[in-house]
From TrEMBL:
<keyword id="KW-0732">Signal</keyword>
<feature type="signal peptide">
    <location>
        <begin position="1"/>
        <end position="22"/>
    </location>
</feature>
<dbReference type="InterPro" id="IPR027396">
    <property type="entry name" value="DsrEFH-like"/>
</dbReference>
<dbReference type="InterPro" id="IPR003787">
    <property type="entry name" value="Sulphur_relay_DsrE/F-like"/>
</dbReference>
<dbReference type="Pfam" id="PF02635">
    <property type="entry name" value="DsrE"/>
</dbReference>
<protein>
    <recommendedName>
        <fullName>Intracellular sulfur oxidation protein, DsrE/DsrF family</fullName>
    </recommendedName>
</protein>
Amino acid sequence: MKKYFLSSIVLLLTLFASPVNAQEQHEQENYVVLTKKIPQLEPIFLTAETLAEEDKKNFGKFEVIICGQTVKELTDKDRMQKYINKAKEHNVELVACGFSLNKFGVDRKDISPEFRIVENGILYNLQLQKKGYTSISL
């Protein structure tokens, strides 16, 4: 009777503990950075590269939201192309804040199509945090 009871406990622990452990091991690590300065993209890309190496298969999404007056600089397509290339190289998605674009009079057509535009970058950042993204604002 004792062996049957112990065997049942071991079986139950194995059944219920394994899916949890497997899920934890395969959970994606997602990141979002909100920045107000274009030159900060260089260290952000290096950070994405390092995290991808550390996280390996668990590395998920890495998004950079550009907000504030610096959105004016997004219209300089020649300057931005090097950042776009680096973003692709490091699997980083570039996002522009629509609220900032409106506030500083930037026409969305003047921004490279590689930038995804969200209506409110701060709200979007908070929504990603609610989904479990690790976040930092610079």
